[in-house]
Design a protein that fits this description.
Layout: E1 2-7, H1 18-37, E2 44-48, H2 57-67, E3 74-77, H3 84-91, E4 106-109, E5 114-117, H4 132-143, E6 150-153, H5 173-182, E7 188-193, E8 201-204, E9 207-211, E10 218-219, E11 237-238, E12 243-250, E13 253-260
Parallel strand pairs: 1-2, 2-3, 5-6, 6-7, 7-9
Antiparallel strand pairs: 1-12, 4-5, 8-9, 10-11, 12-13
Helix pairs in contact: 2-3, 4-5
Length: 277
């Protein structure tokens, strides 16, 4: 059995807001402790974007200090709060290589699973970027191995959550490009995303799209209509527990678990054989 953990939306920061900085660091450390306690311990962690809050070198340095204590290899993707140059200065290399166009895109082969990491960062914008060059790279990378079960990682989900202020336009060109690439790719088991700070699932072009909860605070689940230009005082973020996703590969079968990090009291112990009576 192979397991890989997905964490996302860490939003590590430094001097802008001390309380926010401490909270996000503590929540990330709580998630990392939970992942290290898993049995079996995951083979790798993929951090799927918004690693820091402002894309600044000092923030990446702070994140690097936190991750230096991690005993599990960490791979990286970038999100809309990241900036490629300072990110690559801190983390570039075998765990975050770039393609020929400078995007943070690569594939990693594990035992029985292929992980393909895409770059949807459009610097200066919250919206996703997935232009023809990135679509071509993904198509070529998927075509290189059509047999091994594959998960695709990208920061922005190409489906709607119903939380309108976080959602893309359903007819955004980048979503159509992605759909054209992943349609009919039977080796794909899931497209795993972040960005929305909530776990939700849907379909695009016949593929399962799943997002992970954030290690930082979560987006409030409020599906009521919203005027994007008229603030109405509603709660938009909530301090729900931090979370992550665990990808499980067992004899070719791929499943995902959405997990909550924290310390919880044991409820039942295995003290007698299992039975069906």
């Amino acid at each position: 059995m192979l397991t890989i953990a997905q964490i996302t939306d860490l939003h590590v920061t430094t001097g802008h807001d001390p309380l926010n900085s401490l909270r996000n660091e503590q929540r990330l450390r709580e998630v990392l402790r939970a992942i290290h306690r898993l049995k079996p311990r995951p083979t790798a962690i993929i951090a799927s974007g918004d690693l820091v809050d402002h894309g600044e070198p000092a923030e990446y340095a702070a994140l690097k200090t936190i991750f230096a204590e991690c005993e599990i290899p960490i791979y990286y993707a970038v999100g809309n709060h990241d900036r490629r140059v300072p990110f690559l200065e801190a983390f570039g290399g075998p765990f975050a290589p770039t393609d020929a166009n400078g995007f943070v895109q690569y594939a990693v082969d594990f035992d029985g699973l292929r992980m393909v990491v895409c770059d949807t960062l459009e610097e200066g914008h919250d919206r996703a970027g997935f232009d023809a060059a990135r679509a071509r790279w993904l198509a070529e990378t998927l075509a290189a191995d059509t047999k091994t079960p594959t998960v695709v990682i990208m920061h922005h989900p190409p489906i709607l959550s119903g939380v309108r202020w976080m959602d893309p336009e359903p007819d955004a060109p980048w979503i159509g490009r992605l759909a054209d690439v992943i349609r009919g790719q039977n080796q794909i088991r899931a497209v795993l995303c972040g960005h929305v700070h909530r776990a939700f699932h849907g379909m695009l072009a016949g593929q399962i799209i799943a997002t992970s909860p954030a290690t930082s605070i979560q987006v409030t689940l409020d599906l009521s209509p919203i005027d994007m230009e008229r603030p109405d005082g509603r709660e938009i973020l909530v301090a729900e527990p931090p979370g992550y996703v665990l990808v499980v590969v067992d004899e070719g079968r791929v499943t995902t678990h959405t997990c909550v990090a924290g310390d919880f009291e044991p409820a039942v112990a295995y003290t007698r054989p299992f039975g069906f009576d």
